[in-house]
User: What shape does this take?
Amino acid sequence: MELRDFIVTPIVIILVYGIAFAIRSSVTDEVNRIYFIPALTVKIIGALALGFIYQFYYGGGDTFSYHTHGSRHIWEAFMNSPGKGIQLLFSNGDQTGIYQYSSRILFFNDPSSYAVVRIAAVLDFFTFSTYSATAVLFSVFSFIGLWMFFLTFYEQYPHLHRWLAAASFFIPSVVFWGSGLLKDTLIMGCLGIVTYQVFRIFILKERSTKYWVLLLFALYGIYTIKLYILLTFLPALIFWVFLGNLQSIRSLVLKMMLFPFVIGSAFVLGYFAMLKAGEDNEKYALNSLAKTAQITAYDIRYWTGRDAGSGYTLGELDGTFSSMIRLAPQAINVSFFRPYIWEVKNPLMLLSALESLFLFLFCTYILFNRNIRILKALCQPDILFAMVFSVSFAFAVGVSTFNFGTLVRYKIPMLPFFLVALILILHHSKRDKKLDELEATE
Assistant: This one.
């Protein structure tokens, strides 16, 4: 905390709220308007809380590496010599003439992390390199993406607005880890933006240029910052688009004939999308994914994440696909339902353990309720999309993390999707039950 945090940050927050109140009527309706300001507020609180926790509980961490030991040096360079500041901002690793600054930037040689530093540096120009003010602007971006995520499902299921708002804005760990000056905040915003643009372009068939621009912008953001998320998200998107368009066909016979073709095409396109996404990064090429997962898991477990929380192991991970697939059930379980209450080692883990317990109880209710038709519900494009992404992402982070402290943070992108999927399964099951009852009385 610095003096500028107490001067600049309140001004930035006032401006953010001023803009929010000014545009609220144009981006909300009479029903969802009640969530707009509260959702923004919890994001801002989350951003500030994360900074406090990192400073006074952890005594440092990634968020300060991005800003205090990252974008702050770009801002200082720009103040001393605009040319050097611009050179740092657009540097691709060349330190000629800027070594005095670049040598102090911890993530200068890490392209994905340096992308976050660049974004923070741009925002620093407006906040005078004030950490908490820049963190607030990060939270605003995340809020924009999650508002779009909420609208995607709200427009289809407006009567579920309370449940959808809870899943989109008020999951505690998403509020905390997805609001501050971190990669995860930008990813949450980008995922929400992509979801909404795909819905409008490919499901509703709206061909506005702005949707395409936002879609490409957000996809590039995910690709640059966390490529592995794009590898799990693209196949789910392709399934959603194909099955969503299949539903528009009225003929049941034609649907049944086209269904195998649609599923096959989605798998093929997903495979080639993953190939293409991994071309520029050897670690995430398909033939390297298993080895990357092994290296990442053991690095987090025994080195970079050894102090982040309690470690866990799923079994031997030897760098082969067979070992990854063998550990898939345990990996998915650990992402969704662990840490268990008895595995809690610190207050932040307790928050995640309570969320995991809630998800376990919710899933148990759905699985063992005879009135809930899970398989039939999973045929719905929206549910299948959210579930495919959630499960594949749960597998990816569970098998490559091996540390609860890190897993708590890494798994937040899937939580809104998974909770929405569960909510929609309940909705469709209740709707089908009512239809059956009506048919029985006729």
